[in-house]
Amino acid sequence: MSFKVLGITAGRKDSNSEILLKEALLACKEKSADVKMINLKDYNIFDCTGCTACTQGVVEGKKVPCILENKDDKKKIMDVMLETDAIIVSIPTYYLMPNAAFLRFMQRNLCYETPFLEAIGETVHKDKVAGLISVGGSTRAWQSMSLEALQVTCTLNDYKVIDMYMATRVAAPKQCLLDDSMIERAHKVGENIMKSLNTPASEREWLGDDDMGWCPNCHSNALILGEPQWDGIKFDVECQVCGAGGTLEKTNEGKWKFIIDSNGLIRDRTTPEGRRHHVKEIGVTQGGFYNEENLKSTKERFEKYSNITFPSI
């Protein structure tokens, strides 16, 4: 049985993001993968309404369908996406991060996030992998949150990110076609996907550039100063993607290095266990809200704001 690979883009038709995605998918096709590709601009995807019905369902241990399920194309895509063995995502960078079309799609995932569904017994764990491509008109300086945002949206849906590539300084439509090394690197993303799929899940490793990123756990290039988490856990420095905690140390060569603490992976979002921990947090935070006293108090306090209006545009 061939592996199922889904390519996802959300950029201009027939331009850089789509071209690089097609090149990566060609590599998968060459290895007999069952390949599909979508451009999110061809679909109708609504914004999350913030109704919290799905999170409340998780707290109560039951699956609650998205209230938009029959109103747009989200479920249609997710039904296919959740059955894949791998995805390759190629997205243009706007304002340092992935474009809104992609984020709108992925931020609707809570109803479909497998860690949540696994935690309440609605599905079983499936080992999947992902390759990521960000595409922008500048260098990393103006794409500094692009791959990291792609990473976290895929990681939280049980995809192990095994390769990432940032295509830089391709501002004009189809400009990537003038750079053979860029096309070759996109092809390599597809090759790495197939190499990973043909490796036992427990042995799958990072196949991207060895020196990529600050974090030795997920290879993200983004660290933050740590703050106390909901249950008191605190690290000096955290990877903002995987949640690894540690410190910065200077090497003998005078370069800074992120060193993960001995317990620094207890909140590792790249693992099912680490992601399920967030289910516990939601249960305490949101689950603890719904009691008679809190509901009465918020109703009384909201009266101050319910009748306030300001001129609109």
Automatic annotation (TrEMBL):
Superkingdom per UniProt: Bacteria
GO molecular function, one term: oxidoreductase activity
Range of residues in the leader sequence: none
Record carries keyword Cytoplasm: no
Protein keywords: Flavoprotein, FMN
A family per Pfam: FMN_red
Domain NADPH-dependent FMN reductase-like: 4-154
The keyword Flavoprotein appears for this protein: yes
UniProt-listed SUPFAM superfamilies: Flavoproteins (SSF52218)
PANTHER family in the cross-refs: IRON-SULFUR FLAVOPROTEIN MJ1083, NAD(P)H-DEPENDENT FMN-CONTAINING OXIDOREDUCTASE YWQN-RELATED
Protein known as: Flavodoxin
Source organism of the structure: Clostridium butyricum
Lineage: Bacteria, Bacillati, Bacillota, Clostridia, Eubacteriales
